[in-house]
């Protein structure tokens, strides 16, 4: 395609494309809910079977590194190998009682919100037996949307913190924001209110600690455990509800062919400093990594596991019960 | 993970994993059907909107090259840019009358079978206005499963064949096999019968033409248009029906905890020649490319298109009606 050609697209056509994208995205979201309800029981059974296989999840994460696009440091790998006993993926806004037949988008909360539950055996690194990270899909009033989350505390044993203080610093920063009335973490903040929150955040000593700790890191040496501190562009449930309602109203108007007033443009100021939450983000790929774990690695775990441990050209899509038992008795991991 | 550690897995546990994989694969297949029924009307609308945008699909295929993992040659690109006016994806074994409520696996045929319909304007390369490739998901009696397809004819204009005779040769080979009684393309062939078919195929002069034409190709210079000649490991509908029934029976037995007799092992003979159909395959990545087009490129086409043509950090997941019209009036493709 030569670069001197221009494609002119009518603004009306672009609006149509956006409405179509929104409709397709709604279907994708509903499919997440349907698939969750259809696979729940199978995954519960799998959980039992997997528990009979030592190091199952360590092997899976090892083999999934390319898809994860995240560094799993040698320190992380050691923890996974010695102590990671199980993983569960839960959709917290889909009630346990939900049925496939009522799997319409209106039936319950946001299917994209997700809880990743990592289970650990007694180990030398931390005292927690479960590290649970919940990421909420939220819309902000200034037009962003994505997974946001509260940093969680990992109770590292003395001298054993593979994140070298980063998860502690991120957690302390979050707690300091929570205590500070000016932060309004549970409220609706857009435009100037968000800017004011940000300015106040930067004044907290806990903010400086996070940024300093991050600065001292060698690039690429960020432990996977910093994922538990991911926060994203924090947006409260209250703000998300309002923003989603506005979005829906604009979409209904557009679908009805009514003129949709352009939302006030955010002034883009290139000289603007990076917001505190971006500068103090310990795990910038948190959204993508959570989606990859929930939608690829967790459902495809057996494939990831087999790809390394079994020397086979089995068609795993079909059921293959033809294994030569002699071969399977002693599977060596290379 | 050190390489000197072995993981021993009980054969019974492996059988459990395989049953779980089969159950998850069934859900995936059903989800394909549900998503198809839920998006059909949206894609029909999109088809209309897209028709107003020149070179839409050429831009999409250009941007999708990495995901396609297939060479799009400069010759292909020229054709796409000048003549590709539309793409449609149809699931031929899901009847047009199917409803979401009866979207169970038993309700209709194989949801993974797929028709890719490429529409072209009058052009200097070939006289066809539609190139339609149907790939059937089929099980063979010797345990394979995947998408298979009949090579289709492209009516190239004189001196304009960008595949340099390959699609013609593949089509002629297929037709010769069809005419030869010994090939039994519509029948059930496993074990020795498949070997006999293969030996007979290798004696056809049309087989030799395909192999010779392929040998003269520079690696990586295989045109995308050879996708229309992809055949895979050809298996008839009749054989697939029998093989699937056997597979289901074995699975039911395994689920009921009954001992499942190991299927006779195929003798693996490393010295064996490559089968005729593999040696004469014009587009080895056909299965993967078809799935990528149907499940990624086609549903995500607007994103692929936008990623090149619109300079935006729009969150396309949410609906963004905030475009600055001045920017959109004249979108330049770089």
TrEMBL record, chains A, B:
UniProt-listed GO biological process terms: nucleosome assembly
Residue ranges that the Swiss-Prot or TrEMBL entry lists as coiled coil: none
GO cellular component entries: nucleus
Compositional bias of kind Acidic residues: 263-280
Region (Disordered): 251-286, 313-334
Pfam families: NAP
UniProt similarity note: Belongs to the nucleosome assembly protein (NAP) family.
UniProt xrefs under PANTHER family: TESTIS-SPECIFIC Y-ENCODED PROTEIN (PTHR11875)
Protein's name in the database: Nucleosome assembly protein
């Amino acid at each position: 395609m030569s670069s001197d050609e221009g494609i002119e697209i009518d603004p009306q056509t672009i609006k149509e494309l956006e409405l179509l994208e929104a409709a397709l995205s709604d279907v994708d979201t509903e499919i997440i809910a349907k698939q969750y309800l259809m696979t729940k029981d199978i995954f519960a059974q799998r959980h039992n079977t997997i528990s009979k296989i030592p190091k199952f999840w360590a092997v899976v994460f090892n083999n999934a590194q390319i898809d994860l696009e995240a560094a799993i440091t040698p320190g992380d790998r050691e923890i996974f190998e010695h102590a990671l006993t199980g993983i569960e993926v839960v959709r917290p806004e889909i009630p346990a009682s939900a049925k496939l037949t009522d799997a319409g988008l209106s039936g319950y909360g946001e299917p994209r919100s997700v809880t990743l539950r990592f289970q650990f055996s007694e180990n030398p690194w931390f005292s927690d037996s479960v590290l649970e990270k919940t990421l909420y899909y939220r819309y902000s009033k200034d037009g962003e949307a994505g997974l946001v989350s509260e940093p969680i505390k990992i109770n590292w044993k003395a001298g054993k913190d593979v994140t070298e203080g980063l998860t502690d610093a991120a957690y302390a920063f979050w707690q300091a924001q929570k205590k500070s009335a000016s932060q309004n973490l549970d409220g609706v903040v857009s435009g100037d209110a968000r800017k004011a929150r940000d300015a106040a955040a930067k004044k907290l000593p806990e903010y400086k600690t996070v940024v300093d700790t991050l600065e001292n890191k060698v690039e690429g040496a960020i432990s996977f455990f910093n994922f538990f501190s991911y926060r994203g562009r924090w947006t409260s449930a209250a703000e998300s509800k309002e923003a989603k309602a506005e979005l829906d109203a604009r979409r209904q108007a557009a679908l009805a062919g009514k003129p949709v007033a352009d939302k006030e443009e955010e002034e883009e100021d290139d000289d603007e400093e990076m917001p505190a939450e971006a500068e103090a983000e310990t795990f910038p790929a948190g959204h993508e990594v959570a989606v990859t774990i929930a939608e690829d690695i967790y459902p495809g775990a057996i494939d990831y596991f087999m790809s390394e441990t079994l020397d086979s050209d089995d068609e795993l899509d079909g059921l293959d019960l033809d294994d030569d038992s002699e071969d399977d008795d002693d599977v060596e991991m290379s």
